Amino acid sequence: MICLSATLLRRLAIGITLGGSLGFVYQRLVGCRTGTCPLTATPLRAITYGVVVGLLFALSGCTKR
């Protein structure tokens, strides 16, 4: 069972915010003009991928106690 401590919640919030922001920036700077690119076809998709990657990074340092 995972205990949701304040530190874990803070890491998750930072991971989600930073990942989503970087996904949006990536879509705006690199983007896909034709709409056929799977990652950057829409801003929502790029933000979603960024949030998932941010969550993976945030959870990668968690250990069971």
Number of strands: 0
* SSE-based structural type: mainly alpha
Radius of gyration, in angstroms, nearest whole number: 14 Å
Q: How many separate helices? A: 2
Q: Write the H/E string, N to C.
A: HH
How much of the sequence is in beta strands? under 5%
In the predicted model, the low-confidence regions spanning at least 5 consecutive residues are none
Distance between the termini: 10 Å
Characteristic terms for this protein:
elongated, 65% helix, 2 helices, 0% strand, 65 residues, mainly alpha
Describe the secondary-structure layout.
Elements: H1 6-29, H2 43-60
If you had to describe this structure to a student in words, what would you say it looks like?
By secondary structure, the protein is mainly α. It has a domain at 29-59. Helix content is 65%, strand content 0%. It has 2 helices and no strands. It has helices at 6-29, 43-60. The longest helix is centred in the N-terminal third of the chain and has 24 residues, at 6-29. The radius of gyration is 14 Å and the shape is elongated. The mean pLDDT is 83.
Summarize this structure briefly:
It is built from 2 helices and no strands.
